[in-house]
Design a protein that fits this description.
Layout: E1 7-11, E2 17-19, H1 22-28, E3 35-40, E4 47-50, H2 52-62, H3 70-80, E5 84-87, E6 93-95, H4 98-103, E7 109-114, E8 119-122, H5 124-141
Antiparallel strand pairs: 1-7, 2-6, 3-4, 3-5, 4-8, 7-8
């Protein structure tokens, strides 16, 4: 399973290419698909990113909905129909599709924001504002996180 940590701001060139952080590429290198999967977020002005392993988990999760139900149809359209498999070039860059760039209002730079099993791409200043809001809410609400026990590899849970 890929694990994405930290935040990196990388330049986007005139052709729409951006370098995937080396640590992100290293996390993805053990997977069957040598690249990233991106889709436009339906909850924020950013791009959702992950490896193929996480997309498979999402696909398994949508099977919980009744076949052809509105929920299943909507989730499939929002995630799978919009997802792009982007391989990196020898320099570790991916080519961002124009609609992806527009959705996140990216221009000269993109912030790769690690989210554990996934990551996001943000316009850096927009992310700074979103992060400030998140930190202010956390300071006020003091959220907690139950720590799950580790599941041994291959256990299937």
């Amino acid at each position: 399973m890929a694990l994405f940590l930290s935040t990196f701001v990388n330049k986007i060139d005139r052709k729409g290419r951006v370098s995937v952080p080396a640590t992100f590429r290293a996390s993805l290198s053990a997977l069957s698909f040598q690249g990233v999967v991106l889709y436009r977020s339906f909850t924020a002005a950013c791009i959702e990113g992950c490896g193929m392993d996480f997309m498979e988990r999402l696909s398994d999760s949508t099977a919980e909905f009744a076949a052809f139900s509105p929920e299943q149809e909507e989730m499939s359209a929002l995630i799978f129909a919009d997802a792009r498999q982007l391989t990196w070039d020898p320099e570790g860059r991916i080519m961002l599709p124009e609609d992806v760039i527009e959705h996140a209002a990216l221009n000269e730079t993109a912030a790769f924001v690690g989210k554990g099993q996934t990551f996001q791409l943000w316009q850096p200043e927009v992310y700074k504002a979103a992060e400030a809001d998140i930190r202010a809410r956390a300071l006020k609400n003091r959220p907690t996180l139950p720590l799950r026990p580790r599941v041994p590899a291959g256990d299937g849970r």
